[in-house]
Specification:
The chain is mainly alpha-helical. 72% of the residues lie in helices and 0% in strands. It has one domain.
C-alpha cells in the first residue's frame, strides 16, 4: 500500500506534467501570434507603399489602367500572400489548441499522455517555411 507521501508525489508529478503541456501549448500559440503580428506589420507597410504608388499614378495622370502597372500588381500579390499566411497561422493555432490539451482530473484515465506533441502536417511545415521567408 503506497504511503501518503507517495500519493502526493504522484499527484504533484501529474499536475506538473499537465502544467508543462499547457505551457508548451500556449508558448507555441504565442510564437504563431508573434509571427502574425510581424506579417500584419509587413502588410501595413505594403498597403502604405501601394497607396503611395496609386496616389502618384493618379496625381501624375498617367495613361492606362492602374491595375496593369507591374509595381501595383506585385504589391497586390504580396498582400494576398500575406493574407494567406495569416489564415494559415490561424489554422495552425486551431491545430495547436485541439492538439495536446490536458484533461481535468475526473478519476478517468487520460486519453492522451502528457508528453504528446502536436503533429505538424506537411501544409503546416510549408506555412512555417513561408512565414520565415517573409
Amino acid at each position: 500500500m503506497p504511503s501518503n507521501w507517495e500519493n502526493i508525489k504522484k499527484t504533484v508529478k501529474g499536475e506538473l506534467s499537465d502544467a508543462a503541456v499547457t505551457t508548451r501549448k500556449y508558448f507555441e500559440i504565442g510564437k504563431v501570434k508573434l509571427d502574425e503580428m510581424h506579417i500584419n506589420n509587413s502588410m501595413d507597410n505594403t498597403f502604405q507603399e501601394l497607396g503611395i504608388e496609386v496616389h502618384n499614378q493618379i496625381t501624375e495622370e498617367t495613361q492606362g489602367d492602374i491595375r496593369h502597372n507591374p509595381k501595383v500588381k506585385s504589391l497586390i500579390e504580396k498582400v494576398d500572400q500575406l493574407k494567406q499566411l495569416i489564415k494559415n497561422g490561424e489554422l495552425e493555432i486551431d491545430v495547436i489548441r485541439k492538439g495536446s490539451v490536458p484533461q481535468t482530473k475526473t478519476g478517468k484515465p487520460k486519453t492522451n499522455p502528457p508528453a504528446v506533441k502536436v503533429k505538424k502536417t506537411v501544409k503546416a511545415k510549408k506555412m512555417v517555411k513561408a512565414r520565415k521567408a517573409v
